[in-house]
Amino acid sequence: MIKKGLVLSLILSVFFAVTATIALASGYNNPLQYNNDALYPQGPHGGYTTSTNKCKDCHAVHLATGTYLLTRADSANQVCDFCHSETSGLATKRVSLNTNGHGVDTNTPDPIVAPDDTTPTPYTIPKANWGCVDCHSVHNSQTVKLADEPSTKLLKADPNPGKAYFYYNPSLIDTTTRQSPQKLAAWCSACHNANFGYHKTPKQYYNGTETINVYGHDVAEDSATLDTTTGYALNVNPDNGNQGPNCKQCHQADGGSTFPHESTAPDLLMSTVNSTKSNLDAVCISCHNTASLP
Ligand code: HEC
Ligand code: HEC
Ligand code: HEC
Ligand code: HEC
Ligand code: HEC
Ligand code: HEC
Question: Is the pLDDT of residue 16 over 60?
Fold first, then answer.
């Protein structure tokens, strides 16, 4: 009995010595100590007070293992992976970017320009820097809580700084609550300014040679009402003002946390109708009943 107890306490003390060394050597906190916190569901992102201990979930003051701002990573592109990588992340909410979503296509020239942004100064960024932190504010600071989102989702209040937005308006954000009366489709338009609004409203677009006026499919903040049985849009009269679908109704991606990060269909389009670049009609006829087209 005594022997067994001794062995056990020996094992235990070795175990504690080892774990203590690991904890010391890493210089970080347990990265998930604030996971699923009922009081603050955004985990280590923000909510910093004199009684919390969150900074060290991500930054090691002296013994950081990466070169990027005392985190575990060497670049902005990798810094979220430790917790949010779809394959190896520790957090519950896991995402990844792919070429059909907001990941960079191998053919995309450097620097990348957000497709369908208006002139002057369409959103431009070096390919190597494009990633999570361009849409998300990791400390939940200077974020916006959009009217159709349950939380800020760490979305940046001003994702395309310096831009004269066509529709999105950060000055509508209540500075105390961070609440905006605007919805996600308006926020998306911050970098894709030509893609929002009524089909008769012109937007300035540089087509590679000259700046021209372009018009787009009606796109609104609220979703268009669809027939629950057929899936067709209930009111497709073009001239009743801007009552078109919102971005997500056409760019459905694959549901869940994947929107707007990744998709199996090109351009983040509806994989539910098996759309590809050569059968985009599949997207259109999911809402427009061909029998009732004029
Ligand atoms: C969830 C992980 C995480 C936590 C927790 C966190 N940070 Fe950060 N921090 C980052 C990342 C990622 C960046 C780089 C952000 C970027 O490039 O937009 C960063 C950048 C910074 C910077 C550089 C800012 C600049 O101007 O470039 C400072 C300073 C900083 N953090 C301090 C803190 C402090 C202080 C805390 C605690 C109150 C904290 N961080 C908590 C991940 C975190
Ligand atoms: C901070 C600027 C920014 C914001 C905000 C933004 N995008 Fe993008 N978007 C880009 C850039 C840059 C690209 C091109 C690079 C890429 O595909 O990742 C892009 C590409 C796209 C593409 C084409 C993808 C492809 O592979 O062809 C779609 C569709 C798209 N965005 C939709 C959206 C939607 C929907 C939202 C809102 C949820 C949104 N974007 C918000 C910058 C932005
Ligand atoms: C183009 C802008 C954009 C980029 C780039 C982007 N996100 Fe997001 N992310 C969003 C939007 C918008 C939402 C909210 C989507 C919704 O509510 O449907 C979101 C939601 C999330 C969520 C919450 C998911 C949930 O289930 O609540 C996580 C986690 C997340 N993003 C992490 C990341 C990480 C990690 C990266 C980089 C690998 C990244 N995001 C890149 C725009 C972006
Ligand atoms: C040390 C771990 C850690 C790192 C690193 C980290 N996160 Fe998180 N993040 C969490 C946890 C924990 C949550 C709470 C939800 C969960 O468990 O998935 C969370 C939640 C989120 C959410 C959801 C916020 C909401 O309002 O619902 C977003 C978006 C997000 N993280 C984006 C990022 C981005 C972008 C980065 C990189 C810049 C990043 N995170 C780095 C641990 C981390
Ligand atoms: C009515 C359906 C519909 C709605 C609503 C819609 N889109 Fe699209 N979007 C498409 C289709 C279809 C394509 C592919 C167009 C093509 O290949 O010519 C596309 C392509 C794109 C592209 C890629 C363009 C390129 O050159 O690669 C971006 C970016 C984009 N949409 C952003 C948005 C944003 C942001 C919203 C909301 C503000 C939105 N879309 C709303 C149907 C829609
Ligand atoms: C998610 C449903 C949905 C999808 C998908 C969709 N539409 Fe529409 N479409 C609508 C609605 C709703 C209207 C009526 C808008 C209004 O009332 O203001 C409309 C209107 C139109 C109009 C009239 C001009 C306008 O913008 O009002 C044209 C033309 C059109 N759609 C073509 C297309 C084509 C082409 C596609 C495929 C690329 C497509 N639609 C995909 C819902 C959709």
Answer: no
